[in-house]
Amino acid sequence: MSGRVILFNKPFGVLSQFTDKGTEGSPRPTLSGFIDEKGFYPAGRLDRDSEGLMVLTDHGPLQARISDPKYKLEKTYLVQVEGTPSEEALEALRRGVTLKDGKTRPARAEQIDPPEDLWPRNPPVRFRKSVPDAWLRITISEGRNRQVRRMTAHVELPTLRLIRAQVGDWQLNQLRPGAWRFASATGA
Fold this sequence. Notes:
Blueprint: E1 5-10, E2 41-42, E3 51-57, H1 60-67, E4 75-82, H2 87-95, E5 98-99, E6 102-103, E7 108-112, E8 133-140, H3 147-154, E9 159-167, E10 170-171, E11 180-183
Parallel strand pairs: 3-9
Antiparallel strand pairs: 1-3, 1-11, 2-3, 4-8, 4-9, 5-6, 7-8, 9-10
C-alpha cells in the first residue's frame, strides 16, 4: 500500500483534527499547531483527554484500512485506572463486556508496572492518597467512541489517564508529546 505516513504523539487537550469547529469561546489546540505538512489526514481519532499515538496519512485507502473497524487493526493503550484490578475484572475485559452499544470484541488486558519513561501530563492526574491506582495494557481491535474508558468503567476501574502506544505495527516508542516523524506506510 502506498502513501506517506506521519506518527504523532498527541498531547492531552489537543483535538485530533486540524481545525476547531467547536462553539467554545476560544479556539482549542488542534493538530495544525504541531503538523504543518499539507495533505495529511488523521486515520482514526483520539479523544481530547487522551494522549499518544496518532497515525496520519496522505493516502485515502490507507486511511480507511487503519480507521475502519472491519479491518480489525489492533490498537494498544496504556491505561492508568483508579482502583486495584481483580483477575475477574481483567478476565471480563478479555471476554468482551456489554456496553450500551453492544458487546465489545475480546480484548487483551493485563496489569503492568507503571511505565518508566512516561512524560508528565499537563494538567497532572489528580492524586488521592486513599484510593489506589494501577496501570493496564489493553489491546482492542475495534474503535468505538471512548471504548477503552467505557470498558474500564464497566469493570469498576475508572480511567485516570489513557495513552495510545501502538496502532497496528506503528509504535509510539520514544516520540515525545507534540513531536512527529515520518514512518513507513507498512508500519514501523
